[in-house]
Task: structure prediction
Amino acid sequence: TIKMKGGAKMYEKVLVPLDGSELAECALPHVMNLVKKGVVEEIILLEVIDIPSVLLEEGFDLISLKNGQMKKANQYLNEVQARLSAEGAKVRTQILEGDTAHSIIDYAKEKDVNLMVIATHGYTGMKRLMFGNVALQILHDAHVPVLLIRPEACR
Result:
């Protein structure tokens, strides 16, 4: 639910999906600005581990691969959490495994998230078609408001 605080809307839980890239972190200053203005109560940093099915067919050691990605994601999210907490934000982290867009959308629904803030990667044309567009899929299928941060906003 969205609470009212001094006449302004307050988002209790804001979900920020990250993928370990600097570009994805472009969303963080915008979210921290909302925290400092008293509009956001809690930030949830989410990373989704999506192991491509082609690797399964190639006979990769799936357990080692998954464990390595989990360890890397955990270390990364803990570092980001520490930075944001040092600035006064209430932050928690979550790592999921599965299809990126669907996992983000389902998690937001299950945890009663009020807002999602996502940095777009700015792909166009063939690159967007080849790699898909997680932000676009989330924007289309999410049940809550989505704030998209364009890459230009980070320069």
